[in-house]
Each structure stands twice: as structure tokens, then as C-alpha cells.
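lol forgot to send this yesterday, sorry. C-alpha cells for the thing we talked abt
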């Protein structure tokens, strides 16, 4: 995709440090545009996690479903995805449906007026004429950011302006994936179980086996494995995990300039107090113990071969990629409570997670994908200021219907 000449107009804003951009993306204490993972702080993540939990509980009953459905039935969303997507697209569209938002989509700019020479910025402005929200995925880094600045300018001129949500931009960011990943990790480390009672709880059982384990994300050892340079999901997630105390992150990737952990991200994490380690494989010993046996959480990624250069193809043929694939026997050596996540899609040819791992209780990736729907519904509820109404309904709902154990 060519860079839109309209980008030049936003150049001075695009080149600012992130902390100066964040206020431009808020409105009355709420997120208006969602572009960067670092727009989420811990209190907001906690709030969104609670709203997601409430939505999933309320949505179980027909009456609750009807209530949620009425909340934003006066809103319309455009899903503009000019890069392939299954989960992000479908979970956003399901999240919109839960809250009653009507959706429309453009998934291939070749079917829009862009094929007649219309600029992508004009396309977005047109979408904002018909819709109340634009959720967009683009191969071009910073395109969503330009769209948000364009919307801010329109607002200043008292013209129609709508929120922009980044559903994956180039190699840089995938903030809503990071949101659902954090929600999944938060839930995994609550150590809740349907059989929890006054006699037995999963947490107590884990504490008897691993006396140092604590509830919550602080103090955890997180592994990231695979394509750490071209994967935007890991980039966004690592920044949010870094908000927690005493975090250790172990990056497991081939030492190749197209795959290894980027230095700028490493520095950013170290500056936030994270203990950053790198490993060549799951067997690399750290403090005498192989990495795989130390992890509390493992975030697997696929090798994004669609971005390979001709040189990458030559170099990759000489790399032993078995070091970056899970097997059942590796998983069985992990801590019993460890959580394995993957943003998906997984690569069936490469096999970074073979289906033989799917039944292991440590496999959280299908649950993670479903969590995407609840977390994104919570985010939309926040943007449109209906999260308070959801909490009020939840209070009333749980008074009327005592909750079954979680
Ligand atoms: C990822 C993406 O598009 O960045 N997928 C996703 O949104 N769940 C990761 C990938 O394509 O490997």
C-alpha cells in the first residue's frame, strides 16, 4: 500500500513521543481513540476486566442479553480490514452484536473506491459520515493514528467525528489483542476453579505444590517465543505486562535480525523495571534450570513467513526451528498452573503448537480467543460510556439471581 500523501500533514504529530500523544486520544477521562497499548494503565485494565466479566455473566440469560443488546442499538460500526483477519474481525463484530451495534465491513480496498484512486484517508472520512465508530486493520504503520488526528481536527471544526480503534497496524501495535491477552492472563492467575469450595480450592492446591505462587500478575516469569521482531501482538502485550511489579520476561527466538527481540523494545522494558533475559531454546538453563520449567506463562507466536525477504528465506533454511516449537513432553515439564497463550493463527505446517497440546489444562489459547469478544465488548462499552449502566444492571441482576460459583 502506498503511503497516503495526506500523512505528511500529520508528520509533526506522528513524530512526538508517545506520552505527548496519549492526551489527544482521550475524551472526558475515557479513551476515545484506541491506538496504543500504553493507553491502558493498570486501573483501566482492571476496570475493563471487571466490565468484561460482568458482560459475560449478564449475557448468559435471555433477559440480560436483551438488556446488553439495547445499550448501543442506536450506533453503527465500520470494520475496515485491509489485512487478513479471522479472530479480530469476528470477535469485534460479535462484540458489536452483544451491545446492539450494527456493523458493516470493507475487507478489501479493491472493492471500494480506493481502486478508483480514492485516498485511504478519504475512505475513512466517508466511513465516518455513515458510522459512529471505525475499527480498522492496516498493513501501514501509523495509518490508524493519522485517522485519529484527522477525526480530532474534524471535531475541532465542529464537524462529524468518530472514534478510531486500531485492530492491528503494520508491525507496530495491536492494542486490543494486548487487552484480551491481559484479560486472559489476569483470569488465569486468579486460580479460580468451578470446584472451589470451603474444603478445596485450586489456589490452595497450587500453593501446596508451589509455595511461592501468588494470585495476580506481579512477580511472574513470562516467556515469549517465535517471531519476536515482526509480531505486533507481543510488542503490545509486553508493554502492558511491564506495568506490573517484579516481572521477568524471557525472549526465546532465533538470533536472526528478522526474528529476534528488537533492541528498542528490550530497552523500553528494562526502563520499566522488567528483568529481561534471552534464550535460544526452551532448554536454555537460567540459574541452572531450563527455561521451560520456570515459566508461569508462555506466549507462543507463529513465524510470519509472509514478511520474509529473499535473504530471510536463504538464512531461515539454516536455522533449527524445532527449538521454537512446543511438544507434549515439553508442556508436561511446565509448572502445573502455567498458562500457554497464542494470538493465533497458529501455523499448521510449522506446528509451533501441535494440536496434541490442546487438551492440556495449560492450553489457554481457545479460551483466549473467546475472551477477545468479551474484552472488546468491554472496550466498546467504555468508549461509548455505557459501562456504568452495565455495572448497575449487574448489581441488580446478581441480587435477583444469586451467582453460581464461577
Ligand atoms: C495476529 C496479528 O494479526 O497481528 N493475529 C491476531 O490478530 N490474533 C498475529 C499473527 O498474524 O500472527
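and heres what i got for the seq, position by position
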Amino acid at each position: 500500500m502506498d503511503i497516503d500523501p495526506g500523512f505528511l500533514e500529520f508528520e509533526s504529530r506522528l513524530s512526538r513521543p508517545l506520552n505527548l500523544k496519549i492526551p489527544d486520544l482521550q475524551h472526558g477521562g475515557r479513551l476515545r481513540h484506541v491506538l496504543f497499548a500504553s493507553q491502558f494503565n493498570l486501573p483501566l485494565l482492571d476496570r475493563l476486566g471487571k466490565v468484561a466479566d460482568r458482560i459475560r455473566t449478564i449475557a448468559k440469560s435471555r433477559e440480560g442479553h436483551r438488556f446488553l443488546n439495547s445499550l448501543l442499538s442506536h450506533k453503527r460500526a465500520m470494520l475496515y480490514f485491509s489485512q487478513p483477519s479471522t479472530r479480530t474481525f469476528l470477535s469485534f463484530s460479535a462484540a458489536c452484536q452483544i451491545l446492539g451495534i450494527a456493523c458493516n465491513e470493507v475487507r478489501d480496498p479493491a472493492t471500494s473506491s480506493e481502486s478508483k484512486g480514492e485516498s485511504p484517508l478519504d475512505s475513512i472520512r466517508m466511513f465516518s459520515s455513515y458510522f459512529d465508530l471505525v475499527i480498522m486493520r492496516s498493513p501501514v504503520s501509523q495509518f490508524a493514528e493519522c485517522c485519529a488526528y484527522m477525526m480530532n481536527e474534524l471535531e475541532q471544526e465542529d464537524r462529524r467525528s468518530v472514534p478510531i480503534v486500531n485492530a492491528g497496524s503494520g508491525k507496530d501495535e495491536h492494542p486490543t489483542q494486548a487487552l484480551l491477552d491481559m484479560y486472559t492472563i489476569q483470569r488465569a492467575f486468579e486460580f479460580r476453579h468451578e470446584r472451589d469450595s470451603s474444603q478445596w480450592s485450586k489456589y490452595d492446591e497450587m500453593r501446596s505444590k508451589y509455595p511461592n505462587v501468588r494470585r495476580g500478575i506481579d512477580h511472574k516469569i513470562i516467556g515469549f517465543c517465535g517471531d519476536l521482531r515482526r509480531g505486533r501482538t507481543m510488542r503490545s502485550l509486553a508493554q502492558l505486562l511491564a506495568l506490573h511489579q517484579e516481572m521477568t520476561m524471557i525472549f526465546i527466538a532465533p538470533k536472526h535480525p528478522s526474528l529476534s527481540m528488537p533492541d528498542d523494545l528490550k530497552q523500553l522494558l528494562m526502563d520499566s523495571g522488567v528483568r529481561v533475559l534471552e534464550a535460544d531454546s526452551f532448554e536454555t538453563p537460567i540459574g541452572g534450570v531450563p527455561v521451560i520449567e520456570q515459566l508461569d506463562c508462555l506466549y507462543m507466536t507463529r513465524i510470519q513467513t509472509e514478511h520474509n525477504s529473499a535473504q530471510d528465506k536463504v538464512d531461515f533454511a539454516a536455522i533449527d526451528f524445532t527449538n521454537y516449537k512446543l511438544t507434549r513432553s515439553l508442556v508436561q515439564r511446565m509448572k502445573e498452573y502455567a498458562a500457554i497463550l497464542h494470538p493465533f493463527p497458529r501455523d499448521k505446517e510449522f506446528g509451533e503448537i501441535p494440536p496434541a497440546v490442546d487438551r492440556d489444562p495449560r492450553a489457554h489459547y481457545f479460551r483466549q480467543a473467546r475472551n477477545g469478544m468479551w474484552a472488546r465488548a468491554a472496550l466498546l462499552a467504555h468508549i461509548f460510556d455505557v459501562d456504568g449502566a452495565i455495572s448497575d444492571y449487574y448489581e441488580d441482576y446478581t441480587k435477583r439471581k444469586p451467582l453460581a460459583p464461577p
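Residues 365-383 form the longest helix (19 residues). anyway ping me if u want another try
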